[in-house]
Specification:
Blueprint lengths: L3 H30 L3 E3 L5 E4 L4 E6 L6 E7 L14 E13 L2 E6 L4 E2 L5 H8 L5 E7 L2 E3 L2 E5 L1 H4 L6 H7 L4 E4 L5 E2 L5 E2 L3 E13 L3 H6 L5 E11 L19 E6 L9 E5 L20 E5 L7 H10 L1 H7 L6 E5 L12 E6 L8 E6 L6 E9 L2 H13 L6 H24 L25 E2 L5 E2 L10 H11 L5 H17 L7 H5 L17 H18 L14 H9 L3 H8 L5 E2 L16 E2 L2 H13 L3 H4 L3 H6 L24 H16 L2 H13 L6 H11 L8 H23 L5 H24 L3 H18 L21
Parallel strand pairs: 7-16, 18-19, 18-20, 20-22
Antiparallel strand pairs: 1-2, 2-3, 3-10, 4-5, 4-15, 5-6, 6-8, 9-10, 11-14, 12-14, 13-14, 14-15, 16-17, 21-22, 23-24, 25-26
Helix pairs in contact: 6-9, 7-10, 8-9, 8-14, 10-11, 13-15, 15-19, 16-21, 19-22, 21-23, 22-23, 22-24, 23-24
């Protein structure tokens, strides 16, 4: 037991230590930030040059903010898909403190309760998981603020680079922290956003071919990743309701407080906040304009073309009463394109051509767009130049200027298209039917041939927005005085679209190989797909007749004509896909039930005459006269010169050098045939005929195909060789359907019967033919059918058709 004196001394010591603790903590804070570079802003941070640490000051507890990650620098491979400036994930997060730990927690906004009842909201919050994205140890305390070391968090692979590399079979990579660090040049602070960046090196073994093609040392891939901590917008933004026919992308969440007689899924569109300075005025300047900034690294004349195309959108905002509400400027030299405050149009280089994108950083709570981000692939304009070069040639006076203008006209369209996505607008792949009503379609150059056989490309691409684009901006950005006025106004806009006959069909219905809508296609023109195909074949024929040395640049080897020839020879490839949709096609719209019963059918099959007309047009593209290259062209194009190797844009071949005209024809024919014999399409043909016997039956379609190909009168010479290649493709694809578990059994039955009958026909044809090459062809075809139907052979005797060179994007 302590004596009174010792007890007093012990109490005095404890009291002294208790008063000293805050001073010790303060000293610890000061020690930690000693010599550090301090940046104040949304979250103050301290960078320590001696250790490379970044310390974050956290004093916003349980306060939601936006966390967005992105990829500042890319790998440069279109196939891998990790591009400069690529937008990553946007999450609503908050910092929480638990003892000496700090958690960065992501809030689950997919499930909510829009209710005034706190208990009801809590029941949903506690029912679904949340995500702790990162945990930190408290290093020092100062009042309500703490210091945490954010360095390891910044050096993690937030963008999923390693996952992307592994998924694309480019190797197994992970971050090497010894070769990674905070990148201070792009680490900045502002009152409403904190911008942080790190340089990361991913190391791995056995790198794939795509990585090897773009990385100096493929075992070490160095890129930069960006992190944005952003204050969430205020509550004055009002989400706008989504409608399937609005032309916008949908965002949604489940509302567990919804009445039981209502849909739990709440759907709304993404859009920028845009408000009139004077809401009562018919025309008013905005409170804050929407400003996009173009990458200053874009060279002329592409720079001016991109500015022109992006600025087209201002006309649509002017039409709904905004004055100078949409602007496009050059990004200031000292601005960071990754800064969340800038809407950016970025010029992105890759080793091969690829897609452009329009993406955005949005508030996950409401769909409000915080940052629009356009990625434009720089090689697109060169592909457009190549297409024009193949059509127009370079020999005539002013031809180079004409080619360049056609390419730039496409780039203006592309700029407007991708900016449209960042305004929240989806694709409209039926717009070409309405006289090119939207820049949100994928346009093919509109070409024609004069009576004198001269190519006319003056109207290749439209200028300005289309009618549909004005209507979508009207739906998304019109301002209303009340929710009631808004509901009535939006309904009126949709009715205007219907009254004007404006069609809208988007990605899901248009990209699928077995898509059925006859008017929704990519890279097409015209209201009548068959008529446009015939016109394109006329253009193609005229351009092939004129094709020659004048299609080359001066100084280019003749072997380079092959790559110039590719887009011309395959000029009709996209319109063929459009015509495919008529066969077994069905009309429909994105209609909704509005409370009144209607007797009108919502799904209407394409009539028999149009289906058979389409089938005949497709079969025309298989004729040797269409597919066989002329002897003049074949004699003009030698094998590649040294230093000018073949590439992915070149024709496939089964010869070691030069042009393989038979395989070239085979690839084009396969494109037509696989579309006709597409499994879902054949199933739909059969089903529709079962419902309405006046529609084409599957046997009728199959017989028509076989009569136009395998059973057609045999030709000789080069045409005969191409004809036999086409026949082999038809048989190979029909047998492939029998081998597939994806094909409906009734479809298989119809194919099996036609092949049995064909087998008998081939036996007679082989016996009757006086030409050895045709005898051999018929015998191989017969053996191939017998190999599968009678012997159950797993391996085909026929070689698989080689793929076409890549087409889209153009």
């Amino acid at each position: 037991m302590l004596s009174p004196a010792r007890h007093y001394a012990f109490l005095l010591l404890c009291l002294t230590l208790s008063f000293a603790l805050p001073a010790h903590a303060q000293q610890s804070w000061n020690d930690l930030i000693d010599g550090a570079d301090h940046q104040t802003g949304f979250f103050d941070f301290y960078y320590k040059p001696d250790t490379g640490q970044l310390l974050l000051q956290v004093n916003r507890w349980n306060e939601d903010f936006l966390y967005a990650n992105s990829l500042s620098t890319g790998i440069g491979s279109n196939d891998i898909g990790l591009d400069r400036g690529q937008v990553g994930s946007s999450r609503v997060v908050r910092f929480e403190r638990h003892g000496n730990k700090v958690f960065l927690k992501q809030i689950n906004l997919a499930y909510r309760a829009e209710s005034d009842s706190a208990a009801e909201r809590l029941s949903v919050t506690e029912a679904f998981a949340e995500s702790i994205l990162a945990g930190f140890t408290v290093l020092a305390v100062q009042g309500d603020a703490v210091l945490i070391d954010l360095t390891d968090f910044l050096l993690t692979d937030a963008h999923g680079v390693s996952t992307t590399l592994q998924r694309s079979q480019q190797g197994s990579y992970s971050v090497d922290k010894s070769r990674s660090a905070v990148y201070l040049d792009r680490t900045r602070n502002f009152p409403l956003n904190t911008e942080l960046e790190a340089q990361l090196t991913f190391t791995g073994t056995q790198p794939g071919a795509w990585v090897r093609s773009v990385t100096p040392t493929p075992e070490a891939i160095t890129v930069r990743q960006h992190h944005s901590f952003v204050q969430l917008p205020d509550d004055n933004y009002q989400p706008r309701a989504f409608h399937p026919a609005s032309g916008y992308w949908s965002r949604s969440y489940m509302d567990f407080a919804a009445p039981i007689n209502e849909d739990m899924t709440r759907r709304y569109i993404s859009r920028h906040r845009l408000e009139k300075r004077d809401p009562t005025a018919a025309r008013s300047e905005p409170v804050e304009p929407i400003i996009y900034y173009l990458d200053p690294g874009v060279p002329e004349p592409v720079r001016s073309a991109l500015l022109d195309g992006a600025r087209w959108w201002n006309a649509a905002f002017e039409a709904i009463g905004f004055i100078d509400a949409f602007r496009v400027e050059i990004l200031p030299e000292d601005a960071d394109p990754m800064d969340i405050r800038y809407n950016v149009i970025q010029w992105v280089h890759r080793s091969t051509r690829g897609w452009s994108y329009g993406s955005s950083v949005t508030d996950p709570r409401t769909g409000e767009i915080i940052k629009g981000k356009v990625t434009l692939g720089s090689l697109r304009v060169r592909q457009d130049y190549r297409i024009a070069q193949s059509l127009i040639g370079l020999a005539g006076e002013g031809s180079d200027e004409a080619i360049q203008e056609l390419a730039l006209a496409r780039i203006r369209q592309l700029s407007a298209h991708e900016v449209g996505h960042t305004l929240g607008i989806a694709h409209n792949f039926a717009a070409s039917v309405n006289d090119r009503a939207s820049v949100m379609d994928y346009p093919h150059p509109l070409l024609d041939v004069t009576d004198q056989g001269v190519l006319n490309a003056l109207d290749a691409y439209d200028v300005g927005l289309g009618t549909w684009d004005f209507q979508t901006i009207k739906y998304g950005y019109s301002q209303y005085a009340s929710p009631q006025d808004e509901a009535a106004g939006l309904a009126a806009i949709l009715q205007e679209n219907r009254d004007a006959g404006l069609l809208y069909i988007t990605d899901l219905d248009s990209r699928a190989e077995g898509g059925s809508h006859p008017l929704s296609h990519l890279w097409d023109n015209g209201a009548d797909p068959v008529e446009e195909l015939q016109r394109l074949l006329d253009v193609r024929r005229a351009a092939l007749n004129r094709f020659g040395p004048g299609n080359l640049r001066v100084g280019e080897p003749y072997g380079e004509l092959e790559d110039v020839l590719v887009p011309l020879y395959l000029l009709h490839r996209y319109q063929v896909e459009a015509v495919h949709r008529l066969v077994g096609g069905t009309f429909y719209e994105y209609s909704v039930y509005e409370g009144e019963a209607t007797s009108s059918d919502q799904v209407i099959p394409v009539n028999t005459d149009d289906q058979m007309r389409a089938l005949d047009a497709l079969l025309q593209t298989l004729e040797p006269e269409v597919l066989t290259l002329s002897p003049d062209i074949l004699a003009l194009i030698p094998p590649r010169a040294p230093g000018y190797g073949r590439n992915r844009e070149s024709f496939p071949l089964r010869t070691s050098l030069g042009l393989d005209f038979v395989t070239i024809a085979e690839t084009a024919a396969d494109h037509t045939i696989t579309g006709i014999l597409q499994a879902e399409r054949l199933t739909r043909i059969n089903n529709l005929n079962m419902l309405d016997s006046s529609l084409p039956s599957l046997p009728v379609v199959l017989v028509r195909v076989l009569d136009a190909t395998v059973r057609a009168n045999p030709q000789q010479g080069a045409n005969g060789a191409v004809q036999r290649a086409v026949n082999n493709v038809v048989i190979y694809r029909m047998l492939g359907l029998l081998r597939s578990d994806r094909v409906d059994n009734q479809v298989k039955a119809a194919i099996n019967l036609q092949l049995r009958r064909l087998e008998d026909w081939l036996e007679d044809a082989a016996d009757d033919s006086a030409h050895p090459e045709w005898q051999a062809h018929y015998q191989l075809a017969q053996d191939e059918i017998e190999n599968w139907l009678d012997r159950g052979g797993e391996n085909s005797l026929l070689s698989a058709p080689l793929p076409m060179p890549p087409g889209a994007p153009i």
